Every structure is written in C-alpha cells, then in structure tokens.
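Progress report, Aim 2. The chain analyzed during this reporting quarter is listed below.
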Amino acid sequence: MTESGVRPPLVLTMGEPAGIGGEIALKAWAARADGAVPPFVLLDDPARLEALAARLGLPVPVKAVGSVAEGAALFGAALPVLPQSLAAPVTPGRPDPANGAAVIASIDRAVDLVRRGEASAVVTNPIQKSALYAAGFRHPGHTEYLAHLAGLAAGLTGEPVMMLAAQDLRVVPVTIHVSVRDAVPLVTREAILHAGRVTAAALARDFGIARPRLAVAALNPHAGEGGAMGREEIDIIAPAIADLRAEGIDAVGPKPADTLFHAAARRGYDAALCMYHDQALIPLKTIDFDTGVNITLGLPFVRTSPDHGTALDIAGTGKAGASSLIAALTTAEAMAARRRG
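Predicted structure tokens for the chain:
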C-alpha cells in the first residue's frame, strides 16, 4: 500500500510502437467499466496514442501524467500515460530501430517504478526483437533482460523461469529462446532442478497453491521407449525428478509429451515442466490462444505479458484483441496482491 492506503497500480510498457501494443492498451482501458481490468499506468507517447485512438474510432481519452500516483487517481476517467518520447514517427507494421531506445527505456522505467514501490507489478507489451537487435539490444528476449535489470547473477542459480498460463494449464519450458538443436544439450539435471524449484516456490507464493504438483515431460517420443529412442529420460530427467522429490516437491514423470496435455491429464498437475519452447507453447496456444499469459518466475518483482507477439500484419487496422493483455493485467494484480499478503 502507498502512504495514503491505496494499492499502487500496475505499470504497462509501450512494447513495439509499430505493433499492436498501443491498440490493445486502449482497448484494455475501455474494458475497465465491468471491473475486470485493474488500474494501470502506461509508459508511451500520449500524442501517438491520441492519434491512434482517433484513427481506430476508439472513444478513449488519453491523459499525460507526471507520476504513477496521479495516473492511478484518474484511471476511471482517462487512460493515464507517463510520457515516453519516440525518436521517429511510427508507421503501423513497420518497426523503426530508431525507436528501440524508447522501447528499452520504457522497460527500464517500469522496473524502476515497481522496485521503488510506486507501481505494484510490471506488465509488458510485446517487443519486436529484430528491431531492438538493430538498435543494439543484446538479450535473447524480455525474460533475460528483466533478469539483467533485476541484478540477478548470470548462471543457472540466478536465472528466472518463464511460465505460460491459460485456463487450466500452466507450462514451464526448461530451455527457452534457443533452437531445438541447441536446446537438447541444455536439458540438464541442473536445469530441470532449477526450473522445478522456482516453479514450485512461485506456485505456492504467487498462486496460493499449498502443495504444488509438477508433471515433467519427456524429451523424446514415448519417453525414450526404455532407451530405444534416447537415454535423456533415464540419465537426466528421471534423476532430476528424484532430486525434486527428495526436496519435498511433488514431481512426477518423465511423461510422454503426446499424452500430457489432454483434459484428464491436466487435472493431475498444477504445472508441466517441458524440455523446450514449442513443447510447452503449442499445447497452451492450442487450448487457449486468446487469453494466454506469459509470467516470469524467480524475479524480485511481478512481471506478466500477453502471450502473443507484435502482430505487425494487423497493426493499425483495429483488428487486435485485448483479451490476452487483460488476462496479463488481472494475473499481475492477483500475484501482486498475494505478495502484499
């Protein structure tokens, strides 16, 4: 709580300005009337958002504010925006590396606001990594950059963990932003242990699950078929599960990935540890493409994001839906509330 006894609002980053971040932020604010959207303050260019709202016919008043507290106070009447200047005009669908510094600065500011207690959690709009790389960005993605901002030590013990959540499914990829070829050597006993520990702790702390149940996916088809299709299950994954269980974590597996995600299977666990990116994200996005949420576990602050990209192909057309962003906002608020106690 702030000194006035009011809960700090969420802070939302601009994301890629040529993408759909501005549009879904406008639409999320417009959905606040039913009480499903918690108060948030957006880091962006107010003039850009005003022009975007007018072009899309969205009746959203945009108000530049000087502080998060000021933004929280007027959230009911207007979309509060902490100004973040852009270096170049924005053309929907055409990212400009000249604006990369502003995109990165909005992430930096959001984290700083939360760490100073002015905002309760960080919610990030999607970034266009190719544009940021051209601007000098050197991190594989949001997750890794947020770990850098959090001051976590490089290496296994300090790395955050990415969780994707939608409806009745939570998935955690043990390896994230690497190719499938490069992911296999990174599936180690230590990496699985780290993901399991962080996930179990976060489920208890941030989701209120007293005794989290983890299902651990196999790497190979049919869980390796007793070694006939690979020994990773025997030599790496099963020993890691045994270690987790020895630490008091309820973990089972290795489970064949092709039978881990149907409705009856999902009722048997609170989160599934998956060995690589698409093994986790394909079932989640198939089950619920519209309201998936990306959650970073293991940070000293709450961070969520919509589970979709910048959608450059529809940017500026008015077609973007805000369901995933709204889910990210409500999830962030619920997690922050649990941390407040």
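The chain has twelve helices and twelve strands. Residues 19 and 58 are 17 Å apart (CA to CA). These observations will guide the mutagenesis work planned for the next reporting period.
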